[in-house]
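Issue: ligand-bound run for magnesium ion - logging full I/O for the record.

Environment: standard queue, default settings, no custom constraints.

Inputs:
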Amino acid sequence: MSDNPVSLSRWLIEQQRSHGHIPGSLRLLIEQVARACKRISRAVNRGAAQGILGSLPSSNVQGEVQKQLDVIANDVLLEANEWGGHLAAIASEELERIHPIPHRFPRGEYLLLYDPLDGSSNIEVNVTIGTIFSVLHLDEGVEEVQAAHFLQPGSRQVAAGYCTYGPQTTLVLTLGHGVCAFTLDADQGGFVLAQQDLRIPAATSEFAINMSNMRHWAQPVRRYIDECLAGREGPRGKDFNMRWVGSMVADVHRVLQRGGVFLYPWDRREPRRAGRLRLMYEANPMALLVEQAGGLAIAGSQRILDIQPEELHQRAAVMLGSRDEIERLRQYHLEAEAAPAA
Ligand code: AHM
Ligand code: MG
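Outputs:
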């Protein structure tokens, strides 16, 4: 790290000045989100010491067990973002309904969505977890914000990012003009620029998928993974390696750093559900980051960013990462769709 690192604030101001990429209110919103992530990072670090590990008797809107840190992270993000004057409403994976900005605060033009603590099953085992966020613009002329105003395709996100709480606390951000990474530097007391213009290599030989679900997958995913597993002797003619952290933030971070693919596909266990992950809080922001870094993100034959959401908490199949591999997977889905039904 240089002696004179570029802080997140300075980087954002320079983006605003030199490229006119971001309006002032969006810049301040991102700073607010980063400040909340810093507080969550501290809570995660002190977890056991503060006695805030473990589950709560409650479950969230998804019917999943809530961890104490899920609730703390959600409250920190809500509290940090509602008074700033940049937002019209907030939606969280942990909240059933949207949270319009209370009338006592000024109302802004943006909508913020987040998964406050992704990978929460990894909290107790001290493995990397994180916050994922997405920013949309509220359509002009809206008096009262409703959930329907959030239902915009991912291609309309004006910003997206995540923060990993692991050996380092890293904020990865896109404003739609490439992807940058910032590290939380205790000496500086804030995030400093660590990597500019992240690029995902087009070719890879590494995949991430929960293999225990193999028997439930659809044929195109099964075909892709079978071919990877066949290695050098198989149709791909090379050996593949597998990694699976079990926190999407950590698995996608690895893909952004060194390539690879991350797959959480549709499976037969709940055929009416598109997948395990949520479109608005997980799939869309990660898809924007990956595509801004030169990769691809699909739900099958369709690009994730093109999906028209129908409800706030809807699920999506997620397949993202190195372009050549995801293009191949998309091809396998197209071929399966074109094949006559058995
Ligand atoms: P969460 O947001 O409730 O933590 O759930 C999402 C997580 C992802 O981070 C991860 O990829 C996936 O769930 C793992 O789920 P499973 O262990 O069921 O395969
Ligand atoms: Mg999650």
